[in-house]
Every structure is written in structure tokens, then in C-alpha cells.
Amino acid sequence: MPNFNKLFDEWAKSYDETVYGTNNEYVEVFENYKDILKYISDEVSDKNGTIVEIGVGTGNLTKVLYEKKSNIVGIEPSKEMRKIAKEKLPNVDILDGHFLSIPINKKIDAIVSSYAFHHLTYYEKKKSLEYLDSKLNNNGKIVIADTMFESIEYKENLLKYIESNKCFNLLNDLRTEYYELLDDLCALFKELNYSYSLKKMNKFVWVISAIKGGY
Ligand SMILES: C[S@@+](CC[C@H](N)C(=O)[O-])C[C@H]1O[C@@H](n2cnc3c(N)ncnc32)[C@H](O)[C@@H]1O
Predict the structure, then answer these.
(1) Is 52 left (phi over 0), alpha (psi -120 to 50) or beta?
(2) How many C-beta atoms lie closer than 10 Å to residue 48's C-beta?
(3) Among 110, 136, 184, 210, which residue has the least CB neighbours within 10 Å?
(4) Mind listing the domains of the chain with CATH numbers?
(5) 76 in a labelled binding site
(6) Which residues contact ligand 1 via a Cβ below 6 A?
(7) Could you tell me if 63 and 41 are in contact, meaning their C-beta atoms sit under 8 angstroms apart?
């Protein structure tokens, strides 16, 4: 059971103000948010089978995907987040689950996620990718957008910059949640024989697009 449910149950009602707002500590984290969601949906536009999104939150990426294709299923552990996503998308299945528990019993063509993978420790990420791999068709794709750092030096400089801007909540998140170095995340995909490409979307967020069996 994910540890962050209470936080997201409480954040659910104001979450969209944070991601679309222009006056809060997280503005730079969510810079180009709409482009990030579009980029992810473009990355899976060649997939015609089931697409699963994990950690849908209020359903913003789910909506972009649904507007292109109807065979999208959302997974979200927070009850309050699921409620809001369901209100936006009454025709989409938004199921209770998480990165290590997807209640779907057929093979999946693509798995996507935005701003959620950092809730898992590195060990849980490894276990999760092994689990997701077992659910994915050959040539299936995993696309993950999240804060990732290109080097320890980059991370340290970014933390100094955030501190100088007095964004103390953001600073605390970056220090206490499980944000990885790009190389460390890529290593997990390599271990599973995935080929991958990377794209930087803003100061914080990168997208990894990984193809099963492509290495
Ligand atoms: C910052 S929100 C991102 C929401 C949405 N994907 C977006 O891009 O706006 C993180 C979401 O991940 C969910 N989450 C937290 N831990 C999770 C886990 N272990 N598995 C799946 N989702 C998780 C939270 O409940 C929350 O809805």
C-alpha cells in the first residue's frame, strides 16, 4: 500500500491549481506541463492495444490519452484523486492500484506515468519495472515522466537555487522523496533489455521512453 495516500487525498481538490497555476513554489516543476502530457501521448500513439496509466492523479494525462484513444485504463491509489479523475472522465476505468499492483488480467501494450514514479524507492522501482515488464506485450513501451537529475552536481546546484528562491516545501520534497539520477534509472531499463530514449522537458522533468526487447 503506497505511503503517500494521505498526502494526495488532502491535495486532490487543489492539485489542478498547483499544476496549472502560475503563483506557487512548484511552477518550474510543472513548466510545460501540457507539452509533457502531449509528448507522452505522442510517444504511445502507435499502440493500439490497452494503455495503462499509473498514478493518474486528477486525470490530466488520462484525458489527453482518452481524447486520442478509448482503450486507456487508469490506476490510482488515492481515493480522493480517483474521485476527481472519475468526475472528469466518467467513461474511463480508473482503478485502485499502484506501481506494484495492477488489477488487469490481460497483456498491456503501453504503460505511462507522469510525476509519480518518484514515490517509490530505488529498490521498489526495480521491482516495479520487473512487474510491469511481466504485464507488457513484446515490443510494448513504458514511458515515464518525472524529476530526474543528470548528475549529482546538477542536483546540488538545483537545490541551492531552490533554497535561494525560498521554495522550502519543494526543497523538502526533493530531499525526502526518491528522485533518481538519470543513469541509475536507465540502468534498470538496461537490465531488462529495454532500449530507451530521453527527453528533457524543463529544469526538473525528463521523459524516459523505453521499448521492451529493443536492446
Ligand atoms: C504528483 S501526482 C501526479 C498526478 C498526475 N500523474 C499528473 O501528472 O499530474 C502523483 C500521483 O501518484 C500517486 N502515487 C503515489 N504513490 C504511488 C504508487 N506507489 N503507485 C502509483 N501511484 C502513486 C499519487 O496518489 C498521486 O495521484
Answers:
(1) beta
(2) 11
(3) 184
(4) 5-211 (3.40.50.150)
(5) yes
(6) 2, 4, 8, 19, 54-57, 60-61, 76-78, 81, 98-99, 114-116, 119-120
(7) no
